[in-house]
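Tip: read the tokens left to right.
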């Protein structure tokens, strides 16, 4: 059976009409993978599940919101879409704009974007402009650009983006047969935690679930404005997708935290990389570093006993590891060559 576009799957819960053109690459329907879990989870009977968003068409969760944002932009007569980006948004915007036959304009903070993501954007034909400034400066420029020209802004402050991204909650509940106890995810510009919570709130209002999960958001220590309580002028972290110093959805992320009884905390780059290695080597899931922030945070909660025994915890893994091959190149080294002999290979493989 052919997969259906996300908009068609959830048409009755999205702001579309019969006149809305559906610009789709068959996004969504990503797997909810049961994890073996680290010892701290197994010992407490905690079930971990990974919502593997890296299997979307452009390899990140951004496609869920972009299908709707670009579809509505075309419906409203936009000649182009524009986005500020640290990588994933630019790739998604470029792909969906190409699909729609319109121009994509991407404003990037120079030196702050993983090349794997930038390559996608270039190949899809976007017009890329690098600026001498950070993400927040790029977003300010894009806002001004879309106010003056017939261009639609498709960053997560676009309400249609959040409408599309809320469908993660719908799919999680469908796959689990009910809501998890906790739902953890990375927090950068904070649109995703906002969208997740919107989805769960709608399910509550519709009576489809009787309770919602506690939302756990995790920022990197070097880019943790929400945790610190003030913007970070020069955010720094190995997790480039969440290297943002002044999140556009800051207040809504706080609302998601408070209304769900959850938390937003910071994890170190060392914790992120440890979780990144674990997911790849123990669970078979290769993700970009920002994705691993969700497990890094949950791991800390498990070690401190803050997750009750028998809980079900969903981790949103936001992007595929091939989005940021540079991290793998830095963190994993090829071994030295051995002689072309069976015994030498067997010894190197640990078989002797």
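Filled-in amino acids:
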């Amino acid at each position: 059976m052919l997969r259906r576009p996300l908009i068609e799957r959830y048409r009755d819960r999205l702001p579309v009409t019969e006149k809305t053109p559906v610009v789709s690459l068959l996004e969504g329907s990503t797997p909810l993978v049961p994890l073996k879990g680290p010892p701290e989870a197994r010992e407490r009977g905690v079930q971990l599940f990974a919502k593997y968003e890296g299997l979307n068409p452009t390899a990140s969760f951004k496609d869920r919101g972009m299908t709707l944002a670009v579809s509505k932009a075309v419906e409203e007569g936009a000649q182009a879409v524009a986005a500020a980006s640290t990588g994933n948004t630019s790739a998604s915007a470029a792909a969906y704009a190409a699909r729609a036959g319109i121009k994509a304009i991407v404003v990037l903070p120079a030196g702050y974007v993983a090349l794997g993501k930038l390559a996608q954007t270039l190949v899809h034909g976007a017009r890329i402009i690098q600026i001498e400034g950070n993400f927040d400066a790029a977003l300010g420029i894009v806002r001004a650009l879309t106010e003056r020209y017939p261009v639609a802004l498709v960053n997560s402050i676009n309400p249609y983006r959040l409408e599309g991204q809320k469908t993660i909650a719908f799919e999680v509940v469908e796959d689990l047969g009910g809501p998890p106890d906790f739902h953890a995810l990375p927090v950068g510009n904070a649109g995703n935690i906002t969208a997740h919570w919107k989805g769960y709130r709608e399910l509550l209002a519709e009576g489809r679930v009787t309770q919602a999960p506690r939302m756990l958001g995790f920022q990197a220590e070097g880019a943790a404005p929400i945790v610190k309580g003030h913007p970070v002028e020069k955010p720094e972290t190995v997790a480039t997708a969440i290297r943002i110093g002044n999140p556009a959805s800051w207040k809504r992320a706080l609302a998601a935290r408070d209304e769900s009884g959850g938390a937003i905390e910071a994890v170190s780059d060392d914790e992120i990389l440890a979780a990144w290695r674990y997911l790849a080597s123990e669970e078979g899931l290769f993700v970009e570093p920002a994705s691993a922030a969700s497990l890094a945070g949950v791991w800390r909660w498990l070690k401190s006993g803050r997750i009750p025994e028998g809980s079900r915890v969903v981790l949103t893994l936001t992007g595929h590891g091939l989005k940021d091959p540079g991290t793998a190149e830095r963190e994993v080294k090829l071994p030295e060559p051995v002689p072309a002999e069976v015994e030498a290979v067997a010894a190197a493989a640990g078989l002797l």
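The mean pLDDT is 94. The two ends are 48 Å apart (CA to CA).
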